[in-house]
C-alpha cells in the first residue's frame, strides 16, 4: 500500500470534527479525548476531568470534537456546576471568605479569585501577604541558596579575566614609559 492510495479504514467522521470546544471563556482542543482536553482548563485536573465525564455520561476516551451537541452541553453543565456533583471537600473554593459558600472555580474566575486572595493578604499584612509583597517564597521553602533574584551567584570567570587583562595592559604602559 502506498502513501498516495486512500485508506478504506479512514473514518468519514472527521468532517464533523470541531477543532475547538468552548467552555466558559476557555477554548478546549477538540482533537483530544474528553478527559485530556478538560485538563487544559484551569481548575480541572485529571481526577476532576474523569469525574466530569462520568457525571455527564460521556465516554472519557471519546474525541471531544466528535461528540453530539447534547453531550457537549452535558459536559459544559457539569463543569459549570461541578460543586453540585461532588462532595464538599473536593471543591477548590471551600468556605469562601466573603460569601462563606463552597464553590468550584474554573478558568479566568479561578485566576481572579486567586488575585483577590493575594491582594487581601497583602492589605492585612499577613505573613503570606508580606512575603508576596517582598517577592519572596511564601510556602516555607528554603531561601538560603535558592530564590535569589539580585546579584551574581558564584564566580564570574569572564569578568575576572577581563579585569586581569586590563591590569596587565595598564602595567605594560607604565613599564614602557620608564625605559
Detail the topology: elements first, then pairings.
Elements: E1 20-23, E2 26-29, H1 34-38, H2 46-56, H3 69-80, H4 82-85, H5 108-123, H6 127-134, H7 157-178
Antiparallel strand pairs: 1-2
Helix pairs in contact: 2-3, 5-6
Name the beta content range.
Answer: under 5%
Q: Biggest β-sheet, characterized?
A: 2 strands, antiparallel
- What is the overall pLDDT average? 86
* Element order: H for helix, E for strand: EEHHHHHHH
User: What topology, given as strand order, has the largest sheet?
Assistant: 1-2
Distance between the termini: 88 Å
Query: Based on CA inertia axes, which overall geometry fits?
Result: elongated
Helix percentage range: 40-55%
Rg to the nearest angstrom?
A: 29 Å
Structural class: mainly alpha
Unreliable runs:
none
Tell me what the structure shows.
This protein has 179 residues and is mostly helical. 44% of the residues lie in helices and 4% in strands. The protein has helices spanning 34-38, 46-56, 69-80, 82-85, 108-123, 127-134, 157-178, and strands spanning 20-23, 26-29. It has a two-stranded antiparallel ribbon. The longest helix has 22 residues, at 157-178. It is elongated and about 90 Å long. The protein starts with 19 loop residues before the first strand and ends with a helix.
Amino acid at each position: 500500500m502506498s502513501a498516495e492510495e486512500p485508506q478504506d479504514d479512514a473514518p468519514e467522521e472527521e468532517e464533523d470534527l470541531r477543532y475547538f470546544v468552548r467552555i466558559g471563556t476557555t477554548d478546549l482542543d477538540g482533537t483530544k479525548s474528553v478527559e485530556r482536553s478538560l485538563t487544559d482548563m484551569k481548575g480541572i485536573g485529571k481526577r476532576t476531568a474523569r469525574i466530569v465525564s462520568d457525571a455527564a455520561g460521556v465516554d472519557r476516551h471519546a474525541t471531544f470534537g466528535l461528540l453530539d451537541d447534547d453531550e457537549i452541553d452535558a459536559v459544559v453543565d457539569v463543569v459549570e456546576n461541578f460543586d453540585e456533583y461532588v462532595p464538599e471537600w473536593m471543591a477548590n473554593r471551600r468556605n469562601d471568605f466573603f460569601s462563606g459558600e463552597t464553590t468550584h472555580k474554573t478558568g479566568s474566575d479561578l485566576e481572579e479569585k486567586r488575585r483577590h486572595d493575594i491582594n487581601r493578604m497583602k492589605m492585612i499584612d499577613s505573613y503570606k501577604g508580606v512575603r508576596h509583597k517582598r517577592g519572596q517564597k511564601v510556602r516555607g521553602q528554603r531561601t538560603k541558596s535558592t530564590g535569589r533574584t539580585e546579584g551574581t551567584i558564584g564566580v564570574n570567570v569572564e569578568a575576572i579575566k577581563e579585569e586581569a587583562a586590563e591590569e596587565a595592559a595598564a602595567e605594560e604602559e607604565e613599564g614602557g614609559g620608564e625605559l
